[in-house]
Amino acid sequence: MVAPRYNVGSVQDTYLATKDLTNIDIGLFLRLGDMAFYQAAMSAFYGSNIYIFSDPTLALWWLKRIGSLLQKVKELRFHFHEGEVTGSLNVRTERIWFLLFDWLKSRHQLQRIVINVKEWDTRTFGEGSQPLRDPRIFETRHNILRKFLTFRGLSSAKIVGGRWVNAFEVGVLEKAMTLGEGETREDVERYDGRLEEQLGWELKEPLVQKKARYLMR
User: Fold this and answer.
1) For tag attachment on the chain, is the N or C end more exposed, with fewer CB atoms within 10 Å?
2) Is the four-CA dihedral 210, 211, 216, 217 of positive or negative sign?
3) Residue 22 confidence class, pLDDT cut points 50, 70, 90
4) Handedness of CA 132, 83, 135, 113 (dihedral sign)
5) Span of 73-87, 138-152, 155-169 with lowest mean pLDDT
6) Residue 217 counted as domain residue
């Protein structure tokens, strides 16, 4: 497994994270002067490794940075943390995760995906936000789950749930992501409708109407 960093063409071996590592220089393959070898090396490197991310900004940057090589990546793993605020614009991480999966949906050739949302909570956390009452949090989380429901064609999907995503919902999400392109199921459509209905009900709550006007679109 490798955890990409903000350093072009380098990765860090997560099993050796505590050791003094030298970055893997992908440009080395270019300097070998053999394009066929380069193509084979890139296919092997990106296709055989598992890439893990816990920072959505880094994940989106790296996946865009590798360009067409994204289609060689076969497995990605994402670990969601509770909605910290990130960057100078105070954008919550949920928003960045949504943008990432919205961008990734039409570009990937993944076979396997692991998404851990166990740390999503329903309790008060951080700077005093309440996920069930704050539209910056619950609206984007619902939309992320609905985005998962539109992924298709994976051979394996694993969702690690928790307080926010229960065991039944995990099963529906995993099944949806392993359906063929254009396929659907009654339970998938029913869950999507429930998310939409729940979101509409929550946004009608008087305490969140005022906040909802300031959501980033």
Assistant:
1) C
2) negative
3) very low
4) negative
5) 73-87
6) no
**Mean pLDDT score of the chain:** 79
The count of structural domains within the chain is 1
Pick from 146, 134, 148: nearest CA to 104: 148
Report d(CA 145, CA 1) in Å as an integer.
25
- The predicted-structure confidence for 181-196, as pLDDT tens digits, reads as follows 889 899 999 999 988 8
First-last CA distance in the chain: 34
Helices (H), the chain: 27-31, 35-48, 56-65, 93-104, 135-148, 167-177, 186-203, 206-212
The answer to whether residue 87 sits within a structural domain is yes
Q: Among 56, 112, 50, 114, which Cα is nearest to 81's?
A: 56
Domain that holds residue 179: 2-212
CA distance 16 to 42: 22
